[in-house]
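Dear colleague,

Thank you for sharing your sequence with our group. We've completed the structure prediction you requested, and as agreed, I am returning the results in plain text so they can be pasted directly into your records. Please verify that the sequence below matches your submission; if there's any discrepancy, let me know and we will rerun it promptly.
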Amino acid sequence: MSDRFSGMTKTPDAPAARMLADANARLGTKLDAPASAPLDVVLAELDKKEAFIDILRLLGVALPPRERVWWSCLAARDYVGEAPDNNTASLAAAEEWVFRPTEENREKAGETLDLAEPDDETVNCAMGVLYSEGTLGTGDLANIPSPPGAAETVAFAMNVVAMDNHEGDFDAYVQLLIDRGVDIARGGNGKLDREAATNETED
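Please find the predicted structure tokens below.
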């Protein structure tokens, strides 16, 4: 088996099927691995079958809340660009929460949702923060469960948005999104060498 998905120490020590069930998520690919198969085995099978969308979906389920939001923020940065003028309130608030995951910053991320433009896809990052504790928010909303898998879904969605809007080598970019998630799951920051991964020169 490939070691591409080995060493993901940040992910739960549980079968991938259980993670998917807990997040109310399903894969589109039929697996040969048993229901008891660990995450790395299932990811390796999906990789062999070139089921890359399912890999992204499963990574969104497997990553812990803070790491999951950071993974989505990196994709959002690809989508809007790194320039300060391209910043959005939702993305900035989500990034701030990653660095300081306090209830105050979680509340601030939630507040950006009401002010976001209708076409602002970076709200996925702020929603990931808002639902990070498995509830609809802070204060009174902390007593109301969020929809099962909501935080996982929006992280996956942000990566898909970035993928669909990528103008370079599409296949290489999809692999970058995957490798970022794996790097973060290993304790890295996900900021992989884009030039090496996409064969593009980045200023």
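Summary note from our side: The longest helix spans residues 65-80.

Kind regards,
the structure core
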